[in-house]
Amino acid sequence: MITPVVPAKDVPYTLSLAATISSQHGIKSVQCNCPANPIEYLEDKTSAQISLADGHKFDRDVELLVYYSEVHTPSVAVEMGAPATKSDSLMGDPSAMVSFYPNIPEAQSPTACGEFVFLMDRSGSMHCPMNNQDPSQLRIGAAKETLIWLLKSLPLGCYFNIYGFGSTFEAFFPESVKYTQDTMEEALKRVKSMDADLGGTEILAPLKAIYSRASIPGHPLQLFVFTDGEVSDTFSVIREVKSNGQRHRCFSFGIGEGASTSLIKGIARASGGAAEFITGNERMQSKALRALKRSLQPVVEDVSLSWDLPAGLSAKMLSPEPTVIFRGQRLIVYAQLTGTMPPAEATGKVCLKYTLQGTPFENPVAFSLQPKSDANLTIHRLAAKSFIQTKDMGFQETPANDKKDILKISLECGVISSHTAFIAINKDLNKPVQGPLARSDVPSPMLFAQSRMFGAPMMLCSASVPMPGNSAPMFGASVSMSPKRCKGGGPILSRLRGGGTRSMECQTLSDDAYDDMTVGFSSTDMADLETNHSDDPLVQLISLQKADGSWDLNEGLAVVLGMSLGDIQAALPVKSVDSSGWATVLAVVWLHDKHKDMKCEWELLERKAVAWIHSHAGSATDGLVKAAVGFLKSSVDPAVFAP
To answer: Which pLDDT does position 112 carry in this prediction?
Structure first.
């Protein structure tokens, strides 16, 4: 049976959401992507309350963007255990949530080594639009643009390959190839002809093929995975990534409202990478380039966490030991405090130690050992979730000892696992619901199409719609959402995935609870929805850049600059410099002048360009820059060309 799909405005249910956001260091502001009631700040802005306006119809995910004060200051929150619970149990002992956001300096000379493999979803659902606006770029179109950006931003001397996957998979090259002008041009031709034509979503086979290749000495593997769906073998995929976690890092990207949270976060966590979600009007390019920039930075090594607690009290780690931290990344760990709690005035200390480029760093933080009470035991449940995620390898594959621990924690804390399930409870009788099963077809919202499309000749686009009440945990401060609560920090994005209804109380929490839905599009509708992004001057300029960072002076560049090729050639100020030097300076000035707000997307390729200019133009660089600023009537500061 197919779940009924209706336009979002016609779904017969709404979402009511209230959130309380707390941070001991203060909150600067809170933004919501959906209509919301005025935000109320309490207690000198250390707490804020926000609620959705009446009538949210699940036409998008609910996202809260939280800006915190003193964002790099470490913090520790200690929560009291449940009354009348055994003191040696997770729920009975106090739990601690430790939040670190190290202020890691940016390396001025990113590493030029690495094997960069891009694994792109080419299943049929990638023909869906990026969002529900009309018109909206198709996901496959945004993916192709993103691959162009990534290819242009790679450093000379590295290795790369591109895989597309669906029901089957295919690679651009039999083995990863060295990044040169020729290999880049060949890859770009393949990217431009890519389509969402490989059927379903099967990611395990291409992953195994990638991991089966021999490592390239001196070039650690950096894997970038893009997908808009979910898979039936999530645990097997995560296990495969984890088993190869010591030889690579995985940066994962969930595209659209239906990407699996468990899959995207799981494979990043298993390899010490980072996860991103791209929804609404967010650009895939900016998040992909941010991840590439991270991958080019030196790795933080020798990460360790040490506790200094009063005698008789110890900390039992519930989160996996941290192995890697990226610049701009927050680290959250949970611990169970066992033993005798000291008097109220006592304090403890925890210290994060790590090494960056041979230099040792420490982030110590002292905290009060007076636990705070929370009726929902939010920190305890998040700690339980973290513990389960490190042990749970799926119903069939989890070792017996780990399964025993998972069952104990899941049942005790009410946090779902692959070995436990929801049980519907009659709240009036406080008993499980019994009797014959009854089917109820609850409509799902149409997220990616206009209602006029429904009923047209169909190509199915898969999306996933979770039940309300689930949200991605936020980091570094606490967020409580009625009727459930979670913790958080920032600026951090918290997303509540939309769709579905719940009519009975459940006694467990779920990270992902999805209903599949299908949305129909005709081929004509697809043509109407896809905007012609190849006409974007920025895309054209990026496409013209060479692998070494330079541009040729040709008609294509003249079109982007909006000038005649003859005028550009005549304006060359230093005749001893070849035309490519002049063209490259003009291109960089144009980027700063026309698209300064998108610098995060072209920053890496600009670095290549500036380095190339200094190596080829030498002492003539200053003259070229001054002439280019005048020729383009630009206000760009020549300092952007500093080596």
So the answer is: 67
Kindly list the structural domains of the chain, giving each domain's residue range(s) and its CATH number in brackets, ordered by start: 5-104+379-525 (no CATH), 115-295 (3.40.50.410), 536-641 (no CATH)
Residue 631 clears pLDDT 60, i.e. is over it: yes
For 120-260, where are the alpha helices, taking DSSP H only? 139-153, 181-192, 204-212, 234-243
Q: Can you list the positions of beta strands (E) in 447-556?
A: 459-466, 477-482, 485-488, 492-496, 505-506, 514-521
Closest by CA to 202, choosing from 171, 168, 234, 228, is 168
| Cis, bond preceding 491 (omega within 30 deg of 0) | yes
**158 CB-near residues (< 8 Å, 6+ apart):** 112, 113, 114, 115, 116, 178, 179, 219
The string of pLDDT tens digits covering residues 25-61 is: 899 999 998 999 999 998 788 899 999 999 888 777 7
- Residue 520 vs residues 77, 200, 432, 485: alpha-carbon distances, Å: 48, 16, 38, 36
- The DSSP bridge partners found for residue 486 are 479
Contact 62, 15 (CB under 8 A): yes
57: amino acid identity, one letter: K
Q: How would residue 93 be classed by pLDDT, with cut points 50, 70 and 90?
A: very high
CA atoms of 10 and 12, how far apart (whole Å): 6
Please tell me whether residue 44 adopts helix, strand or coil conformation.
coil
What is the token pair recorded at 144? Answer: 């192709």
506 in Cβ contact with 422 (< 8 Å): yes
In the chain the first and final C-alpha atoms are separated, in Å, by 62
> How does pLDDT run across 562-602, given as a tens digit for each residue?
999 999 999 988 777 889 999 999 999 999 999 999 998 99
User: If you search the block for the tokens 């049976």, which residue do you land on?
Assistant: 1
Q: C-alpha angle 603/605/609, rounded to 5°?
A: 110
Nearest 5°: CA angle at 55, between 51 and 59? 95
Span 6-16, pLDDT tens digits: 887 788 888 89
